[in-house]
DNA sequence: ATTATTAATATTGGATACAATAATAAAAAT
DNA sequence: ATTTTTATTATTGTATCCAATATTAATAAT
């Protein structure tokens, strides 16, 4: 099937439309609204966004670089397939990158930043499946922000986006969210005590175990 | 100054020219042939590569994602500035990513792969400043290849490219190369013994200390 | 009937043309 | 003289057009 023509979305007519198109497509892909494997035709997207194919092509290139779209020369674009084996890789990369960020962040962490993270955590507690991904990302990024390493933070952000796609199709249970929330509490406590070593250890376990759980969850779903 | 028009380079007329243009520009930027801060005009590049501005734009986007080019909407592209403070960040990211790769690679490492790495190492021994960067990258990537994690390997490759730019402008001494070579020997020994823990420890120190050395080298060069 | 070959169609890649924005130079005002 | 405003130029962003490639359908051959 091709992209069923959705409501034409008028976008800001200024500057770089490519970035705006990429932004909209990105959220659609992460949320699963555009499913994996979907073929993205330049003409259809151009109609949807009321532009020519040119900015659409630019946007597809951007998303390709982020790993959300596969682009084959002369053959078009398709939403990147989520191969279950790849989950481990992404979560391993997250673990080492985020531990590095946290290690440098903790000495610079202010109380108000910890409070902000706690606020996001409590929000996530009552939130449903829909918002879990974005709140989870916000929680983590709040803690890492003071590490003052822009390249590292951008890298982590990309990995979160990739991971969130799996979360969506995994249809995670409340159990998963509860456990994550508990681990976030422990992590916050260690941050509050400025216990860098403990916090890093907790974070590493938190990410790796989440990845493992997701992996088995999707594995059994695919064979069932 | 703008890009002084160099010899027009005819490139393969098929498929995706953007990747080819990106490849050529990448080596020029890494080697320092195109210096940091240089403004890249689409028209000039199009002339150089005998194409229109269109594939050039695609290429610039690719390089932007790799961190080699800064792209500002409606204002053009410039070769990314090498801020000395950023060296540590890149080398820290290299360390954790490459240790992760090596950890998973060693159990899968074959003797012939180790021999190949050793061959590259001995080549680097006699090589000059020019080839050090590319041989160093080849050495490391040979050891990581069997980890079978494409996303991780691509990430590492990008980080190497970024690091190599600093190497070029640092005008490193033979001392630096000698030490690197010695550490490569030790690393190979640990790999040969399939001693994962030791190899990872050596690799981590190898990368971090190289980053530190580069940092101080450039720091003193900028104040002198 | 099945496969191979050719023709028709759809889709992407690239070139040219035009529009919007930013940078620069010139002119006017204080 | 300095600042503000306006006009000019340079450069990027987008649209449209054409060419190259891939896909599909139709035809021919075995």
From TrEMBL, chains A, B:
Record-linked SUPFAM superfamilies: GntR ligand-binding domain-like, Winged helix' DNA-binding domain
Signal peptide range: none
Residue ranges that the Swiss-Prot or TrEMBL entry lists as coiled coil: none
Source species, domain of life: Bacteria
Protein name in the entry: GntR family transcriptional regulator
KW Lipid metabolism (keyword) present: no
Every HTH gntR-type domain range: 15-82
Keywords from the UniProt entry: DNA-binding, Transcription, Transcription regulation
A Pfam family assignment: GntR
């Amino acid at each position: 099937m091709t992209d069923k023509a959705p409501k034409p979305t008028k976008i800001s007519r200024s500057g770089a439309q490519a970035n705006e198109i990429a932004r909209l497509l990105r959220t659609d892909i992460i949320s699963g609204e555009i499913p994996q494997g979907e073929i993205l035709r330049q003409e259809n997207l151009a109609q949807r966004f009321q532009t020519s194919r040119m900015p659409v092509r630019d946007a597809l290139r951007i998303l390709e670089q982020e790993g959300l779209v596969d682009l084959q020369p002369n053959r078009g674009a398709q939403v990147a397939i989520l191969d279950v084996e790849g989950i481990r890789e992404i979560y391993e990369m997250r673990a080492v990158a985020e531990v590095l960020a946290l290690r440098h962040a903790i000495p610079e962490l202010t109380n108000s930043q910890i409070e902000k993270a706690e606020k996001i955590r409590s929000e996530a507690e009552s939130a449903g499946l829909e918002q879990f991904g974005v709140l989870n990302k916000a929680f983590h990024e709040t803690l890492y922000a003071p590490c003052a390493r822009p390249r590292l933070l951008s890298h982590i952000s990309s990995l979160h986006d990739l991971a969130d796609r799996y979360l969506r199709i995994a249809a995670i249970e409340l159990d998963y969210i509860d456990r994550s929330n508990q681990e976030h509490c422990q992590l916050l406590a260690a941050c509050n005590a400025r216990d860098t070593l403990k916090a890093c250890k907790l974070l590493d376990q938190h990410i790796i175990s989440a990845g493992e759980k997701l992996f088995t969850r999707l594995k059994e779903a695919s064979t069932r």
